[in-house]
Amino acid sequence: MDAGCLFYREVLPDTSCQEEWTEIQLNTGATQSTLQDIKVAEKAGGYCFQNVRLNHNRNRFIYWRTYQDVLELSEVCLDFTLYKNNVRYKFSDTPVLNVCISEQDGYVTLLVTTVCSLHHLKFPHPDTLAEGSGNKIGAQNGSSNLSSKNGGISIDFNESQTFSIFHEANNSSVRDPSSFYVIDSQNAASSPAPHAATSFLSPSGGDAYFALACQSELMLFVMNCETGDTTSQSLKENNIMPRLFSNLKNAFTGKNDFSDANYANSVVFSYINGQIYLLALYRDDQLRVWSTTNFQCACSIDCVRDNNRTRIQGPQSSALRKISNTSFCAFLSHATRSEFVCINIHPETGTSSGLSISYRKSIPAPALDLADFAVCENRIWALWTNAEGEFSISNYPLLRGLGMNWSSVALEPPPDRYCVVNEHGMDPREAYCNYIFQRGIFEREVIAKALFMFRRTNLRFESKHCTLPILKDQVCQAVEDEIQNEVKEFDVTDEDYLEIATRQWERFYSCCEQYHLKSCQPCGFFLLEPIDGLCVVKKNTFSLLRPCETLEHFMLVSDDLDVNTAVSTYFAGNERVGEDLVILVSIVAQLERWLPDETKGEIDKRLYRLEMPNVFIAKLSDEILAGDPDRELFPSTFLVWIRQKIQSINDMGMAMTLLLESLRMDNGNPAGMQTNLGIVQSSQYLSTVGVLFGSHLGLSVLSETVRQITAIKFSICRNLLIMQQILIDTYSLGVDLLEKMRSHFMPDTTIFLQSYFVMGWIAETPVNIAAAASLESSIQRLNLLQLTNGSGRIYSNGGKYHVSPLVRVFLNAKGLYASMALYADNFKNSENIPTLSNTLLPLTTIVSQLIWPVSFNFVFGEWLFGTCQHIVIQNYVRLLSNWCEWNICSRQFILAVSLLDSGESFKAYDLFLQSAKGVLREQFLTDKILKGTPLAQRAEYLSTIGENDGGDALDTNVNNQVITQYYLKVIQLLEQHNALDHIISMAQVAIGLLGKSDSQLPMFQSIVFNNHLQLEHYEEAYHSLIYNAELSRRKDCLRQLVVTLFNRKRLDLLMHFPYVGLHEEFENIVESRARSLVIDQNEVYDFLYAFHVNNGNMRKASAIMYEQAMRFQLEGDSIESMEKRCASLLVCINSLHLIDRRYRWIAKPVIGLDDAQPLSALNDSEPMDTKPDDDAIREQVVVLEIKDIKRELLHTEALMRLADHRKDIQTFIHAGPQELAIILSGCGLYTAALKLVNGFEISTLSIFESLTAACVRVSEESANEAWAWLQENDLADLPHRNKAADMAWSFLQKLIYDNELENATRIRKSVVNKLLSLNAFVPQWLYNEYKMANCTELLYLFVKHNRLIEAAELAQEMISAMLGAGSEYFSFKHAIAVTNQEMCLPVNTLDLLLHGLRLNADSDIEYKQVLSDLEDIIQIYIDTAQRTADDKIQMAFQEQRSHQRQQVFMA
Fold this sequence. Notes:
five-stranded mixed β-sheet; 52 helices; elongated; 37 strands
């Protein structure tokens, strides 16, 4: 072990997450223990692997403990986590006496000695495991999983696991007959059981030696490791004379127990000059050396040098330990005193045995009970216990220069129940749960046992597979049940309830405390010589003893410090200053002992509340100096004692300066602690060094060491500040020194006090691992913005670790890698063997530097930022906010992000603005904001210029661009949390920094617009887009505004915005949107129409309405689409009527061939077989006037009417007007059909024919059917008729009257023709009207349809009217007369009529009579016409003659 280390301190690893035990049971068939009641003391020990230069052997050891017939073995590695590292052997009914572990030839050999069996077990050596192909950890890279990443080295500590050497331990290996030997127990009933044993493996590994000490004999067993063959030999002196003289000597010295000479208390093996010897320490204090070759005693010595003095055996048994193969140490217990005797064995050729034995040193032992001890070349280590059962560990140096006194080890005190802070009104459950579960003081097994005892039931709670949260719930329920049992029969006040609850929780805590103290009792220890440490094995766990730092040593030892030894060791060459420092620290240490715990707690609270230390320390100094007898903090003579101590200091200023420099973690240069540079430069050596303390146990040791040293230095700073204030208040020093203390030392001490308080908070603050690992969404948000890379993420490790201190979580996630990268640079040039002194302590210093607030590095803050632990971040920043100026902007930034993620966006916004100035000054912000951007190099240059000469005005632009880049990153953060109002404010701040010509200005203006738009600040959004410096962005923003307002139905705002300079773009955007949306629910056309009407542009308004109508026609075939099309066409027509007559037209694009003009219209000269050009048609437009639009309206209205009667309306959508009119007529919609054909100016005859047929059929139909189609027509102007037939004929009469043109009979002809074709009678009104309009045509129709009698009657009436009898009832207005115009007689029709009558006259008398009458009247007409013609001729001659006469006369 390291001889330079003067003091050691206990470190408690976190063993709450141990691997499960592999249970192995062996029954050798021995009967010794069944015949005798054998009680074997509980023992413990271990073995540390020797070749620690190999990474897989470094910080790796095995510890074991025995109780009766059970042996527990655990392999521990502080550098990487071992898998299947716990094994428990149960040797049935055979208590274990001794365990020996050695390494040889690629194996680790375990020799176990029980009272009746010997065992030899082999396990693979770590070297063998490291060479395996499946192993993750090799000899060169230690436990690290190294991979190149971004030019550095990435280490995954969470997967750095390997198999333990015990991973293949099983029942078959231990039950192999060649691995054990059962001691002959035939005389077991009479033979005493062995009480001491030892074992040894030969250097070749072929033989295993076992020695068992019984009451009167010493047995030696040699086992062949290959075959298991074992030989035994009893070791005792053969000649009589030595035994005789020995008995005579015993008689003279007063010893009457003749068995003391054969009773061996302790035995050990040694290998000297190629031979194996057994050393036995007997009860008579004789040390004999037995040869395993000839089984004779080679030499012996009486360990007590004063042979003439009476020696009475003490209460403890003597024990022997091997220092080396030639050096041994014996513990002798006598009634008067106990002592350690060091004895050396020397090879000597002059003797028969070749050995000589001599004394080396005798060391008196303290007045305590020895539990265990171990010896190395430098020290004797001893585990002591006193009458109260308290344990202590001390060491005595064996080398010169290390002192001549027993030096105690600083053991960790047990949990103090008074540390449970239960403030007034606080829930006791919260206070005790925080202390029991959150701090990790008690193991799960301890809490489970305490719960069992607290419940006082037979139901034991199994904690093996129980997580800590479940166990916590069980405890809370059990305590609550006890509370309810007390209060259920009484009405208690809140104060009484809290008192009862506090009492019950104190009771449960007392149970935990008892089991914890029991489980932490040491049962042995062993030296970790290769790494300069000790391992203390306890009942349920283990602890380590590590070397101490200098200040830590001074503070812990205090008055027992050997000043000369400490000064010569730590301050070689500068002893005078060292002595001053030791005295100064002794004063500080004495103040630590004087200062009450209440005062210490009050100082901690004030620091946590951010009160200034110089203020409350000044008040504390006044209180101390006041000497209040009711509250005496220090002894009354404390000031005299301090002054005496100070007078012994030669140079107080130098001592104070040296102490402050020792406390300073930044080495006097905070700005130089740029760990990022160190990590990059040193990470290349990390593959050689491997990972130190990377396992869960190693991390807990490292973090606990950081906590211990931090707590010591914090107490130094606190007490030093109190002492400085007292010296200033009492003027105990010179004026110059007091002034220097006030102006220089106290400010530094104040800063250090606050810094170490924050470091202590980091080292002690518990973190819920499960909750910390569940913040994935927050971490992902930061990853998206490249603010973190996820390398420092906290993993839940499958729920194994529930709570860990913050510093341990930091080390596990990122801190250890950063520390190792910095440590590797120093380790690469070191040839020293890696021990705790040169690995653990330097790493502790580096870790402390990483969390040291007063420095340039921000590794801890950066990691904390990436974990999204908001409560921790906010507390961390708060503790540094009032006094720490380093990385203040970076801390404000991470706090702002934390507050933003916590929903406090207003606070976050203010902090973002405050931290902007640090982008160019602090490396963290520079990396996060500018990394990977073109501004990074320019910002670095600007920062360099700023450091040298402050920069110039030319760099102002770069500075503004850097800050705006920061604002852009913040805006992205705010966008993730939907903090829109703060985004607007942040963008406006950035706009204020940018010039009008800056390329980033339009981007921030667009950001302002977008967020105003999302906040529904539409007017502000419009104004922001109008002022956007880039036209394309203005158009994009306008399009976004239009879309949003349409979606929000805020058409009123769209209508009234002026759109300065963007009017045409706005129309295009709206039109594009209108055309892109489905026409069924498209309100954009209506808005466009209203917009154009509002602007007085009726022509565009009409065009928009027609476009909407056209889309309804093309894209919709529902009734709703037709109705909307009708409405659109009506609006279009109305708009066109409001336009100047010259512009009442619309240009309609040709959609397809249906809209194209006929081929003859395109080019009359083209051949008929020439096909039209589709592209030419697509480029054409059709000019539509009002009449064309009206016709489309009529067509649509007709379809709507038809849709009410026909379900197959889709088949008639594209029907022409003539076809549609016929279909309407077929449905009885005669009014609609007539309206359609009149609008298109096409023939109405088909409609009237259909209506005529319906009128004829009406008499045959039921009344309901007739009235059904009648009511579908316009009957408003007709008088009501009771009969449907009368109503139908009246309807026909009205339509003929309304639609027949003047002096035309086309409709009447069509109706009469239809009637006659249906063999129906012509209604009288129609008959009369037709006679008045064209009787000749009516006569022809009668004749045509062979209605001869009716035709004859009409002919007679017509001829009679021509002759002057009723001419007013016919179409001619006068009769035959000389003075009237000539009249036309339908001769052909009459000839046909007469011919028909003559044909039927012979067969029907009626025809004959009618024929006769018609011939008579025709004859009369002929005669009259002849006479009238003659008269007209005569009158014409006379007129001509008279005219001639007049001409002659005139001539």
